[in-house]
Structures are given as C-alpha cells and as structure tokens.
Amino acid sequence: MPPSPDDLPDELPSHYQNTLLAYHPKYTKRKAQRFPVSPGKRFKMGPTVGSKADQEERSQLIVRFYDPKIKARDTRRRTLEDILSWPDSTLESCHNYIQMLFPLPEGSFFNLDTPVVDVDVMQAFHSRDDLRQQLRRSFERMLTFYGFQVSTEPETKLEKTHGEQKVVLQETQKNTSLSAALNGNASASNAPPYNIIRGSNWHDQCQNWAVQFDHNHLRISRIIRCLRVLGLEREATAFFAALERTYKDPQLVISAKSMKFWRSAATRPLHIAPDDEKCDWLETWEKEQESSDKSVNPDGEALENQEDDSSA
C-alpha cells in the first residue's frame, strides 16, 4: 500500500514531489497549507546554503567518502562500510543515507547538508576505477535489499530453484558513445556480461517495494540517475531492464508513474532530471562529448584529416 501522507517527511526531494503529490491529494492539501506558493510555481529548496567554496568542499566529500584509502565519514559520522553493513531493516527505515550513497547534481529535501555532484566529482569517478568499484558495491548492496542479484550468464535460461521457476534473461547492453565516455577509455566489449536477475530472496524482498507506490520507488530513480552520472552506465541499463521486467510481471502491480520516472532516469540525456529540471554544466559536458565523438571515426582518425587525404 502507498505510505500514509502523515507518515512522510514534510520536505521531499525536488525530483519526486510531483510523483508523490499525484498519489496523495491529502498530502497535496497539507503541503499547500504549509508552503503557499504562487500558481504555476513549484516550491523548491536546494542545498545552496553557504559560499561557493563551502559547496565545493561538500561536493568533494563524495570523493573522500568513496575513496577506499581515505574512507571519509559523511555529515552524520558514518563511513561507507558502516552503511553497507546495515541490515535490511535499517536500510528500509533510515531516510538520510541514500543521498550520500547515490549523490546527484540536484539537491535533496531530506538533508540540506547532502553534497551534490559537480563536474569535478563526476570527472573523478569517470577517471578512477576504484571510486566506481566502491559505488558498484553500494549499488549491489541495494540490489540485494530489493531482492535482485548480479549474474554473468549471457543467455536466456530457465532454472528451477526450490520448486519455483526462475527466468534469467540476458540484458541488452547499450554500447553507445556516451556510455563509452562515461566508463573511461576501457573498451566496453572487454567488460564481462552484467545481468541483473531475481535473487533467492526475491519473494520476501519484493514485497517491500514491488507495489503500486512506495518510497523505494523514489530511491530507485535516484540510483539509476546517479549510476549514469558517475560512470556506471552499464549497471544502470541492466537495472532498468530488470525493473521493466518486474513492472510487466502480471502478478505485480507497480504504478505507471513510477515506471515513467525510472525510464526517464535511465534514458534521458544526463542533463535532464526525471522531473524535467536541467543541469547546465552537465548539458555543456554532454555537448563536448558529442562534439568529440563527431570529430573522430571508429579508427580513431580525425574526420577532417580523412577528408583532406581524399581530396588530395
């Protein structure tokens, strides 16, 4: 069942206000009473408190938090290892860790001190495999929490586990120029298959989130977008494919609105958030990547040089 409006925090992440308000007219009324705004304007609040230097320092906390040698603590004095060791019950009930594990270029209403991703943070993750590996650990911990697991099995396969049939589907890997840029210089073709399938704990864990609407739907949108921004495009693609299969399962009922947000997080240009908010510096970065891709052919030769040779 959807959570009661009275059980939800007063402030919501900017990305997901519209989604939640669509489900809860009572919550809409309560928010309108507490935060009156002009018609056509959406109430927003971002972690822009403090100077630019303060904001940059907070952003760099993301790198230090994920650096396996530094192991910095977040603003609540927790390390990555602390959070990853939590039981599922704590991951479900605590609402102020997900923003640190999966930071975004946009702010959070749950925690105004949460650092946001800037261009320096993004480039650090794209260039450092150790940071991406740590982020992958966070992602795979949440996969277990949701009842999924990672598989390298590249082909559709039918297994029997404890008397139940489990379908293992091969994920379609998108080998685009953008995903290649996100994953650095390594060849995507050399990466092992990365598939996400239902785990042995699926039956128990899916009941916590594979419902019409749940606060975990907001977390999932955040996770997908974070993975893409910080260089784990392959993992984001596999996760979305698993979610899409879950959505199509006739035995489950997940809101079409939630699926729309997940699809937006997985497929839109990076500079456009699921709620249509735009990030200027990400748009600039994407344009630079596109320009670079157009100037080089698959053999790595500049197209303009090739044209000069052909006209000689």
UniProtKB/TrEMBL annotation:
<protein>
    <recommendedName>
        <fullName>Opioid growth factor receptor (OGFr) conserved domain-containing protein</fullName>
    </recommendedName>
</protein>
<feature type="domain" description="Opioid growth factor receptor (OGFr) conserved">
    <location>
        <begin position="195"/>
        <end position="237"/>
    </location>
</feature>
<feature type="domain" description="Opioid growth factor receptor (OGFr) conserved">
    <location>
        <begin position="59"/>
        <end position="163"/>
    </location>
</feature>
<comment type="similarity">
    <text>Belongs to the opioid growth factor receptor family.</text>
</comment>
<dbReference type="GO" id="GO:0140625">
    <property type="term" value="F:opioid growth factor receptor activity"/>
</dbReference>
<feature type="region of interest" description="Disordered">
    <location>
        <begin position="34"/>
        <end position="54"/>
    </location>
</feature>
<feature type="region of interest" description="Disordered">
    <location>
        <begin position="287"/>
        <end position="312"/>
    </location>
</feature>
<feature type="compositionally biased region" description="Acidic residues">
    <location>
        <begin position="301"/>
        <end position="312"/>
    </location>
</feature>
<dbReference type="InterPro" id="IPR006757">
    <property type="entry name" value="OGF_rcpt"/>
</dbReference>
<dbReference type="InterPro" id="IPR039574">
    <property type="entry name" value="OGFr"/>
</dbReference>
<dbReference type="GO" id="GO:0016020">
    <property type="term" value="C:membrane"/>
</dbReference>
<dbReference type="Pfam" id="PF04664">
    <property type="entry name" value="OGFr_N"/>
</dbReference>
